[in-house]
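Box S2. Input/output pair 1.
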Amino acid sequence: MSGIVVEGLTKTYTRGLAGERVRALVNVSLNIPSGEAFGIIGPNGAGKTTLLGCLLGFLRPDSGRIAIDGHAPDDLAVRSVTGYLPERLVLDRWMSGRDFLAYHHALAGLSPAGRAAEVDGALERVGLAGEAGDRTIRRYSRGMLQRLGLAQAMLGRPRYLFLDEPASGVDPAGVVLFRRLLSDLKQRDVTVILNSHQLDQVERVCDRVAFVRGGVVEAVETVAAGATHARRLRIRAADATLGTRVSREQLAALATGAGATLHDCNPPEARFAVADDAGAARLLQALIAAGVPVAEATPEESKLERLFLEAAGGAEAGAAPETGAGAAPPPAPNTASYRPPGSAS
């Protein structure tokens, strides 16, 4: 059986001198097919990092079962095809970036014959080729550390890649680079598990997303399903047509005829409520037919922003305290340097 299967996963921690048991995960069940990009979102303290720790075999659940390609997460057969980029990177700062990758290439048991070429290729993919790769890691910025950690996680072409806030501290160019790399991985049928607060990046990369709160998976959404959801659409005209040549009353009538609703008009922009993609298309057709030079049409919030706000009640009030359910870090190495014997990651 390929892919990741999670059944009835429950994990608790002991907190305080009184030994209070705090639930970090509660009866979590997921089925992630091989080759899917799967996102995990939720408020702080929701249990997301605990879930990653269990999937990686760093944490032992109280009950439930995890199988990756039919094996336990800590099985060496799984470790050998797994890459991992943790949220908190602690690297060997005295090494150069190139030496760091060569060292982990050797730890992973990969062929020495292709080591130099594969290390050079990894540095090139993450934008650290040339002098940047020869620089000592202590001189790296936060964004460069994230790039190096991702390069190390991808050594050996893993089939499963676990990423915990991969774009944290990365500049806009790095964010674009990460998104491109993740798209390339999807084309190679790599299964990507992405935990991130950057909802726009998750929506661009992932096929499905789980919303976690209080240790419970409250929703699993297919990102493409946003086409079936109502949303507010912002229309910008290329000139002052909106509200002048086409009056507010005319805009309201055009919207009603297209099955939409005019929310407000502030030339050269107007905002409309549409039911779905088909409704947005009808509205745009009506506006253009009426002589409105539409320059831009954008939703005011993404699918995942809507999911997050709806599931969280518009705020993080439902999040567990930072000392509670999801706040405890996995009791395992949190550095990209950790690699089990024989692992390619």
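Box S3. Input/output pair 2.
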Amino acid sequence: MVRIAVINQKGGVGKTTTTVNLGAAFARLGKKVLLVDMDPQANLTVHLDKRPDLESNTITSLLVEDAPLKDLIQTTTTAGLFVVPADTSLAGVEQVLANRIGRETILREALDVAEEAKGFDYVLFDCPPSLGVLSANALVAADRVLIPMQAEYLSLQGMAKLLEVIQLVQKRLNPELQIECILPCMYDPRTNLTNEVLNEVAAHFGNVLAKTRIRSNVKLAEAPSFGRTIFEHAPDSNGARDYAALAAELMGMAVEAPGASEPEPEPEVGPEADGEAAPAPADSAGVGPSAAGVLPPDASAEAAG
């Protein structure tokens, strides 16, 4: 089982869009995939046509009440794709778990003991745009990290703080954690800024930068409002091609880089419809060359504060 935390403390960079559509792409390749919504905004849950306000068995039940994972897994309209939904009460989990010993390992322990989890080829965690207890649980439970980023300089600023957290989790709680890739989203090769930022990322991180680019795509922004993945909503779109290429790349399959024969991307329509609220800019002044990763028992509070 491969466990991937999709994380970036900056909002609106494509975390939810990537989690849903990468999971669907894996499922279309015959893999059994579980998506776990760790965000109190429950955007992934909505994206998969669930109602957070009507859900009773959610990830909150696992984290707070130790509910078994098997009671939380739900099917989706995509064969082979399953979800553990979130609800808005997840926002209070940080306070509820504040004094609980081992609070960062709850999710990992639940996955390790659940027989149902062992049947999945991939588990993807959609992390909130913050670095608190919820993100810590995902990083401790994962063995890989995927970092979606928008090709702009503010994204570079926040990357340094995120890498510090990943390194801390790796050192204290999860030595197996590795960065899978940094994924450029809302990519528009026509702008100088995009190319400058990606050159900067490539200079610092080398082969950690994904070969696939997720191009700016109207259909990706539309899909959540229909409760569908991009493959259901617009299977012939650039968005569908790009996420299919990303899944193939992560599985080590040979695939032509999307867009090679399509130089003109779709018009940019602003941030993808993740519904993520952008947090305050990170304090870090630059991006270091390290790409390893993070969190001591109290690091969730340190990182969030």
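Caption for Box S3: The beta strands are 2-6, 33-37, 74-75, 81-84, 122-126, 144-150, 178-185. The radius of gyration is 18 Å.
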